[in-house]
Amino acid sequence: MNARPNLIMLAAAMLLGGCAMQRVSLRVEGRTRTCLVDLSRSSPTGARRLPLVLVLHGHGGTARKARRLSGMSEEAAARGFIAAYPEGASWLNTPWRSWNAGYCCGYAKAKQVDDLVFLRALLEELKRRYPVDPGRVYVTGISNGGMLAYRAACEMAGELAGIGVVAGAMPPGSCNPSRPVPVAIIHGTSDRLVRYEGGRSQAKDGRVDASVAEAVAFWTAHNRTGAEVALRTISGGRHAWPRGASKTLWDFFARQATQAPAQ
After folding, report:
1. How confident is the model at residue 21 (pLDDT cuts 50, 70, 90)?
2. To 10 degrees, what angle do helices 72-79 and 245-255 make?
3. What is the number of alpha carbons within 13 Å of residue 249 lying toward its C-beta?
4. Within a domain: residue 78?
5. Which residues lie across from 24 on neighbouring strands?
6. Concatenated DSSP letters for 59-104?
7. Mean pLDDT, the chain, integer
8. What is the mean pLDDT of residues 166-188?
């Protein structure tokens, strides 16, 4: 793995659904990686520094799909933060994208793609291009994207002010965050792809996931009184981004602003 990725910036403005978007492309470890950044009503040229929320799609997802399903851009426009949607790696640049969360999923896991190198490189590029407040950077994701959010909290704690996980399991193995990390978890009790109670998934890979209770217990013990851990259980909820989840996550993130990592 390269310690310092080679970055080639290729930017293209576009209009999606009436909102100004920008596609940011980086060349990281021999792959072209992309991210959509929503510039709707959060002006990228203003002097005020804005919070940044990275929204990670699930296995088989895309940046556009994550934007559409999460509704995070609408929340960003109303609440004044920047929403960005990175894309995972895929076979021959097909839409079937995934993240390497260590034990899941798809192409990214099979090829041992270092998605933390990508996230670090992307954050540096976004901070360079937009008025990002470096002390208010948050990562959230669904399913495989939520798993990577956990990995980011374990290995990038000093760079994040909090994470949010929707329908994702905490990857097994060591997790040694350098500081307490605020963690919000949203999960449905009837999820069969990432089971609330943990155990074998109905996904084709047949992996075994940790339970929500295990994740809550880990972060509560690690954070002690240094950072908030919040759980929203959706009774009967399946494997999906629930209605209102983006508002819940932003409400949680906004409370963490005064606890952001020192820069």
Report:
1. confident
2. 40
3. 34
4. yes
5. 11, 35
6. TTB-HHHHHHHH-HHHHHHHHT-EEEEE--B-GGG-S-BB---SS-
7. 89
8. 97
DSSP state of 150: H
Name the pLDDT band for 48 (thresholds 50, 70, 90).
confident
Task: Report which DSSP code applies to 158.
Answer: G
Token pair of 164 as six digits: 């949010």
- Does residue 150 carry a pLDDT above 60? yes
User: Does any domain span residue 36?
Assistant: yes
Q: Cα–Cα distance between 79 and 91 in angstroms, integer?
A: 36
Do the beta carbons of residue 52 and residue 125 sit within 8 Å?
no
Residue bearing tokens 């933060």: 81
Total domains in the fold of the chain: 1
The answer to whether position 1 is within a domain reads: no
| pLDDT digits 0-9 by tens, 195-253 | 999 999 988 888 999 999 999 999 999 999 999 999 999 999 999 999 999 999 999 99
Q: Are 128 and 36 in contact (CB under 8 A)?
A: no
The whole-number pLDDT of residue 261 equals 53
Distance of alpha carbon 131 from alpha carbon 53, whole angstroms? 13
Q: Is the peptide bond between 105 and the residue preceding it cis, with omega within 30 degrees of 0? A: yes
Question: What span, in angstroms and rounded, lies between the C-alpha atoms of 22 and 135?
Answer: 23
| pTM of the full structure | 0.89
Question: Which residues constitute the domain of residue 40?
Answer: 10-258
Query: Does residue 5 sit within a domain?
Result: no
CA distance 15 to 21: 6
Q: What is the pLDDT of residue 142?
A: 98
CATH number at residue 37: 3.40.50.1820
How far is the C-alpha of 233 from the C-alpha of 214, rounded, in Å? 14
